[in-house]
Amino acid sequence: METLRERKKQRTREALLRTALELFITQGYERTTVDDIADAVDVSQRTFFRYFAGKEEAALALEGMTVAHFLEAVRERPSHEAPMEALRQAVLEGWDTLNDVIEAVVPVELYLRMHKVIESTPALLAAHLRRSVEIEEAIALILAEREGVDMDTDPRPRLAVAVFGGVMRLTERQWSTGGDFSLDAMRTLTISYLEQVGPALSESWRTR
């Protein structure tokens, strides 16, 4: 059972995270300092660093939560599903259950608005892309284990994930620059782009 001290630490971490995201959104990531975040929560800078290595870790913390949720969803997909179908179903399941993952910490709207901040902040976008490479390798490993293949000799897990990752990256970019920033809009766009992967790769694009 969680102790009172553990609950207090969790509440402090969540307060720091929520406040950091609110400040990043309202006044900008670059203009927000660690002191701004700590002062708003009425804790010391030292306390902030007990929970986060820096601003970047706080800014990308929710992304880490959703990634962990997605990886678990991929692991749990039925073994009869083809790799790309398993990825597709896992990501759609992730959007359907995002509220369960995020709402315990911050409102989903805050999470979605933070996506725009990441896309428009060079330092955060670079960090996000670096993490994406690590995440894609983790997904490829899961697929290789599911299919019983060796990634060192079989390129298919990494190829499948490269295609999937490219689609998700395009989806994020199009959604963040569009006019509808709702969760439904992101989910609809994700479905639309994933459904076009097969035709885009295997069919002619020319119109007669």
Query: Helical amount among residues, as a percent range?
Result: over 70%
Overall pLDDT, averaged? 89
Gyration radius, rounded: 19 Å
* Poorly predicted residue ranges: none
Structural class: mainly alpha
Span between termini: 67 Å
Strand content: under 5%
Write down how many β-strands occur, each being a DSSP E stretch of 2 or more residues. Answer: 0
Summarize the structure.
The chain is built from twelve helices and no strands. It has 208 residues and is mostly helical. The longest helix has 26 residues.
Structural overview:
The chain is mostly helical and 208 residues long. 76% of the residues lie in helices and 0% in strands. It contains 12 helices and no strands. The chain has helices at residues 4-27, 34-41, 45-51, 55-59, 61-75, 83-96, 98-102, 108-120, 122-147, 156-177, 183-195, 197-202. α1 (4-27) packs across α2 (34-41) and α1 crosses α8 (108-120). The N and C termini lie far apart (67 Å). The mean pLDDT is 89.
Task: Describe the structure using short key phrases.
single chain; 76% helix
Secondary-structure topology with pairs:
Blueprint: H1 4-27, H2 34-41, H3 45-51, H4 55-59, H5 61-75, H6 83-96, H7 98-102, H8 108-120, H9 122-147, H10 156-177, H11 183-195, H12 197-202
